[in-house]
Design a protein that fits this description.
Keywords: Lyase, NAD. This is dTDP-glucose 4,6-dehydratase. The protein is an alpha/beta fold. It contains 11 helices and 12 strands. Helix 1 packs across helix 7. It is globular. 46% of the residues are buried.
């Protein structure tokens, strides 16, 4: 199989590409425009493979996408390319509409034309989305595949729009699409603007660790390799036209995540920054994000019962691996702006 991955130099995308090259016999076509969050170094282990091709292209350019499809003739698309940081979407929503909505439209149109010209009965289009499209939960309840859409940020609104486009192109043009909605991802190679890597890097540099509001916002945390395994399970066994929630079964408040990281670093680092005995001294509560959702929680029962998938990592085991990776790969982080 030849799999075209959009956004394959990003955090989740590069984990997926590494898995495809290192653990399968599939060929991979990686399309990524290399924004600030994309890093080709994430794929150093793949670059010499004769099963790997990279195109530095923007999915907002439909003609360039068409050229890639014509040249590579993929059997599957896994669509991960997206602007994804909520804070940036508040500052510059247009970039999110361009990539997440127009870029998805272009990819759907090029896929539609590709399928009209090629007889590929086993073709699959996997659209990777987020639980944020469902809005905010109260203290109880879980997001299911049938939850009502209620996006509350420019980012989640743009992803909700892309979900609706994908569903419409399946219903109208019979494109064999499957959508996944995942919870918060974490793990190696995540750009350090996100909560977990930001906490790690600020702590070891002796900088204040910002926590929005009271820090009691709840998120379900999914280790990135578990997410990749879930995507691969959906690619191989998911039903066309269906939606699958991929979650980690790991609800945590933001403040508990930060304090757990600080405790891990207390044990791992003997030579702490000057004046710091315990890293949680660096925690600093800051003004809450505009429209900050209170709680996300995924019901991944459908993945477990229908596709026999569940995450391998607990939050503690995944966080242990993540903290250790950042401590062992400080050179990767040093040139990142955060």
């Amino acid at each position: 199989m030849k799999v075209l991955v959009t956004g394959g130099a990003g955090f989740i995308g590069s984990a997926l590409v590494r898995h495809l090259i290192n653990n399968t016999s599939n060929h991979v076509v990686n399309v990524d425009k290399l924004t600030y969050a994309g890093c080709i170094d994430n794929l150093a282990s793949c670059s010499l493979s004769d099963r790997y091709a990279f195109y530095r292209k923007d999915i907002c350019n439909k003609d360039e996408l068409q050229d890639i499809f014509t040249k590579e003739n993929p059997n599957a698309v896994i669509h991960l390319a997206a602007e994804s940081h909520v804070d940036r979407s508040i500052q510059n929503p247009r970039a999110f509409l361009d990539t997440n909505v127009i870029g998805t439209y272009n990819l759907l149109e090029v896929t539609k034309q590709h399928l009209q010209q090629n007889n590929q009965s086993d073709f699959r289009f996997i659209h990777v989305s987020t639980d944020e499209v469902f809005g905010s939960l109260a203290e109880t309840g879980l997001f299911s595949e049938t939850s009502r859409y209620k996006p509350n940020s420019p980012y989640s609104a743009s992803k909700a729009a892309s979900d609706h486009l994908v569903r419409a192109w399946h219903k109208t043009y019979d494109i064999p699409i499957i959508t996944t909605n995942c919870s918060n991802n974490y793990g190696p190679y995540q750009y350090p603007e996100k909560l977990i890597p930001l906490t790690i890097m600020h702590a070891i540099q002796g900088k204040p660790i910002p926590v929005y509001g009271n820090g009691l916002q709840v998120r379900d945390w999914l280790y990135v390799d578990d997410h990749v395994d879930g995507i691969m399970t959906v690619l191989g066994h998911g039903r066309v036209g269906e939606t699958y929630n991929i979650g980690g079964f790991n609800e945590q408040t933001n403040i508990s995540v930060v304090k757990t990281i600080c405790a891990l670093l207390d044990t791992a680092i003997e030579d702490k920054p000057q004046g710091i005995k315990h890293f949680d001294q660096l925690i600093q509560h800051v003004t809450d994000r505009l429209g900050h959702d209170t709680r996300y929680a995924i019901d991944a029962t459908k993945m477990e019962t229908e596709l026999h998938w569940k995450p391998a990592e607990t939050f503690q085991s995944g966080l242990d691996k993540t903290v250790q990776w950042y401590l062992n790969n400080l050179d990767w982080v040093k040139n990142k702006q955060f």
